[in-house]
Amino acid sequence: MAGKTVAEKIFNAHHIDNPAGDMHVISLDAVFCHEITTPVAINDLAAKGKDRVFDSGKIMAVIDHVTPAKDSKTALQGKILRDWARRHNIKNFFDVGRNGVCHALFPEKGFVRPGYTIIMGDSHTCTHGAFGAFAAGVGTTDLAVGILKGVCAFRYPQSIKIVVNGDLPGGVFAKDLILHIIGKIGVNGATDRVIEFAGPAVEKMSMESRMTLCNMAVEAGATSGICYPDETTVAYLWPFINGQYPSKADALADYRLWLPDPDAEYDKIIEINASALAPLVTFGYRPDNVKPVSEMEKTPVDQVYIGSCTNGRIEDLRTAAGILKGKRISDSVRGVVSPATPGIFSQALEEGIIKIFMDSGFCVTNPTCGACLGMSCGVIAKGEVCASTTNRNFNGRMGKGGMVHLMSPATAAATALAGHITNSNLYKG
Amino acid sequence: MNRFSGNVLFLNRSDINTDEIIPAKYLTEISKEALKPYLLEDLVLEGFDPAKDLANRRVIVTRANFGCGSSREHAPWALEVNDIRMVIAESFARIFRQNMFNCGMLAIELPAEEIDRLFNEFSGNNATIEANLEKKILHVASDGKTAEIGFSISGFDEALVKAGGWLEFADTHY
């Protein structure tokens, strides 16, 4: 019998039912909720007389898309989520002051573990696969069922393995790697597939970089991106698991259960040489429209945005601040930075990073998803161009009639200084 | 159970994403009905005008990877409140496809050559398609021409459509 992929092992360990064909119903270890997609699920459940939760300890909720509320409608969305969390005694509810971008906040709180199954009404839920979990974005009906019953149905997963060899060159980051991968396989290249990210370049990555990598798996259509749990994973999780395991080695031994078998069968295996990559940027309205920065050099931008579930973590802010330190951004550019969580914001304050951003001319906002999807805190006007560390360049994404170029935090910082798209290596030391 | 038939809206492009189907700025609505005026508002497709071209359309025929991007179920809801309950495409993004069946609606995948045929032979102004879910046949008609095209959906998806969606199914079964 053939060996198992990571996703197959996780599915088998969580099996509940096989209602038909290749559809499998699996049990969920966590259901994550935010204020955009959950209120309709809450109202729907209530209207059907099913205002219950399967396990209040396995539900985590946050207000993150528009926060603090910008108008009556968003205030109501927050209120519905807040009232529901109180009503069901959901202790892990993060309101204004403690809230941040869900896919940065929940890992930071230790809610994700190797081998977990997680759903959320948000396509970038695939981020949490960085910990060796199966984490998938779902719609509101799947979310409602997850909240009510703690189960979700998926096709039994096929996987694509992407092996990244070599070392990322200077000025090239996890964001450039994932843009390269999406450009290579296309926005449809991994539909209904799980992507396993493997190889030495991934093993060397921090958890933050692995989250960036897995975050954009969905932009190639993938159900989840997965990195293998290793010493880096254990070190990140140690503050949350040190009561559970006598040593890090014991934790690692346990987590190795979730590595793929050597003879696991893949739909496809793709090899990438990281050493050959250059900094990349998107053009057009699809995340697979990718070009080297050198070919987009001198493209003028109106706004630079650094933040989001893709690139709003401390490592991203450190990288950008390293380029901005002691310099002023171009007069022609508005700079907006949004540390993704209060924890990241505090850390950046302690390290002097916030001061660097402010001295360079950046506006620092509270943690929120707002600008990435054109909802608040950095919406662009018709005809404007934004250089952004976010994940989608769809038409109208950051504001109707606007253009978004996706890039790494380093490229975004260099672009803010130059006033046009440019290579961060030009601003080294 | 929903009825799946009516006039066809042809959208001749692949990779139409959920931001195009319903822009994020309308996600502050908490009722499905409120999404009605904004369906396909940001669609990038030459000659398409959502203000005129959506009138009396009940079925969408389109190309590959329809519904990619955001997980928002607001996309099928925006279709539903405009009385469009069936989308026929070469392929769908996973979450969108599941959302359609979870809402008791039909997302039918046909081979590229069948989609080509629909565009080439039936994309006049008065094309209609009716799905016979029991026989798994699409009855297509336009300008006096007719065709029958077989389709398949999984037993699970069919059960969801017949149950009126996943919530009802799951609460009975699990």
Can you describe what's shown?
- The complex is a heterodimer of chains A (429) and B (174).
- Chain A has 429 residues and is α/β, with parallel strands linked by helices.
- Chain A has helices spanning 6-13, 38-47, 72-87, 102-108, 140-149, 174-185, 200-203, 207-215, 231-241, 248-255, 293-296, 308-311, 314-324, 342-350, 353-360, 409-418, and strands at 15-20, 23-27, 30-34, 59-62, 93-94, 117-120, 134-137, 151-155, 158-165, 193-198, 224-227, 268-273, 280-282, 290-292, 303-306, 334-337, 362-364, 385-388, 403-406.
- Chain A has 2 domains: 7-271, Aconitase, domain 3 (2-Layer Sandwich), CATH 3.30.499; 280-427, Aconitase, domain 3.
- Chain A has 16 helices and 19 strands.
- In chain A, α2 crosses α3 (72-87), α2 (38-47) packs across α5 and α13 (314-324) packs across α15 (353-360).
- The mean pLDDT of chain A is 97.
- Chain B has 174 residues and is α/β, with parallel strands linked by helices.
- Chain B has one domain: Aconitase, domain 4 (Alpha-Beta Barrel), CATH 3.20.19.
- A 7-stranded mixed beta sheet of chain B has the order 4-3-2-1-5-6-7.
- The relative contact order of chain B is 0.17.
- The model of chain B has no long low-confidence stretch (mean pLDDT 94).
- The interface between A and B is large, with 59 and 44 residues.
List keywords for this structure.
heterodimer, A: alpha/beta, Aconitase, domain 3, 5-stranded parallel β-sheet, 19 strands, B: 174 residues, Aconitase, domain 4, 7-stranded mixed β-sheet
Rg over CA atoms of chain B: 15 Å
How confident is the prediction overall: mean pLDDT of chain B?
A: 94
Number of domains of chain A: 2
Number of strands of chain B: 7
For the report, how would you describe the main beta sheet of chain B? 7 strands, mixed
Q: Helix count of chain A?
A: 16
Return the average pLDDT of chain A rounded to an integer: 97
Determine Rg of chain A (CA atoms, Å).
21 Å
Q: What is the terminal-to-terminal distance of chain A?
A: 55 Å
Biggest interface and which pair forms it? A-B, 59 and 44 residues
